[in-house]
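USER: Write out one fold?

ASSISTANT:
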Amino acid sequence: MTLNYIAGEWTAAADAVPNVNPSDTNDILGDYAHASLLDTERAIDAASRAFRNWSRSSIQTRHDCLNAIATEILSRKEELGRLLSREEGKTLLEGVGEVTRAGQIFQFFAGECLRLAGEKVPSIRAGVDIEITREPLGVIGLITPWNFPIAIPAWKIAPALAYGNTVIFKPAELVPGSAHKLAEIIAHSGIPSGVFNLVMGRGSIIGEAMLKSSEIAAISFTGSVATGKHVAQACTASDPMKKVQLEMGGKNPMIVLDDAEIDVAVECAVNSSFFSTGQRCTASSRLIVTDGIRDAFVAAMTKRMTSLVVDDACKVGTHIGPVVDQRQLDQDLRYIRLGQDEGARLVTGGELLKRETPGFYLSPALFTEVDNRMRIAREEIFGPVATVIRAKNYEEALEIANDTPFGLSSGICTTSLKYASHFKRNAQAGMIMVNLPTAGVDYHVPFGGRKGSSSGPREQGRYAAEFYTTVKTSYSFEETA
């Protein structure tokens, strides 16, 4: 059994579940302990007790710990990337790339430890000085999803530790392997006991305990809209109230205008819609194409999709790995049937595939004759399913793009500076892409959206300080001679 990490010790549990490879369901990566309510409470208590010393530790100490974590992650990126691909199902190239990003995130925040700054400003009153500083919050509960099992934990854990907070980390049940390896690396970095704690298991037990605990100061959550709303309500209702940060769903549009370079547009759409098996909150599942290029775009997309290889995530030459598990596969298939029932035309894909090993293989699906009011155009599917929506011109395309309850990422393919500039100003999303896939962001800049996609301060980059610290304004009277 692979153990939880609580108060500086590897801790067994009464319950454990197997970690199954979606590319080969006969391949079990191991049995991973599920924390109990008591385990979670012990972890929260340990983090609470460790906070005082860690929050007052030197910036050099924190830098050295985070830098050691980054160095170890990057030195083992091939090993960790293969593990990630085996348990989550994204291709080996994507898995190694994600691990690399995790290491880079820890590198960035190691540097941020040394760049902590405040302000000293004059008062409107004579003889009064004002200092504005940032301080850590306390114990932070981190709840992460299965689709990025090391990058998303990294971009939450690294800033939490860099700014002097202590951590309770609850990874998704489907992907405990990457979380456990990350915890091993953190445990050997010099981080004091109790500062970082790993509790694997069910959200109904661990997550609820974190939400109810008066010792947890803040919750950062990435996951579904329904669960995110529950987290927000619980944090608001808790006593004392918890600071909350939410990253939830997306139904991201990509506009393709008549003047677009069709090869560029097709590659952007294929990458956005189908890579990582479409299991990205930034994936583009609504391709809004203007009349003049629509037929040529659909033909080029269909041709390009026939060249995509769906197979074992770790096999050389695979472009798209399996869906993460049976439950997600069933959801993808339900939406494919729903799209056909709604009157959309399934141009290609959407079929179960058999490969050398038993797995959750699905060919990427493309729908045309889609109206933006259809459920397949409004609800997040989280699979390799894309829809083509026709628009008369740029103005109608922009209106359709913004007609969604979500607002995470939005893209446009065009050679027109006029339309590109207008789109950047008027697209209702947190991240805008011009002639680039809607998925794929840098680690040193803010990540997040608006409307139903995100709530609270942005993640990543220097903007992470907005969530992981609180601002203090100090006044002092200095009598002048």
User: Anything to note?
Assistant: The longest helix spans residues 92-113.
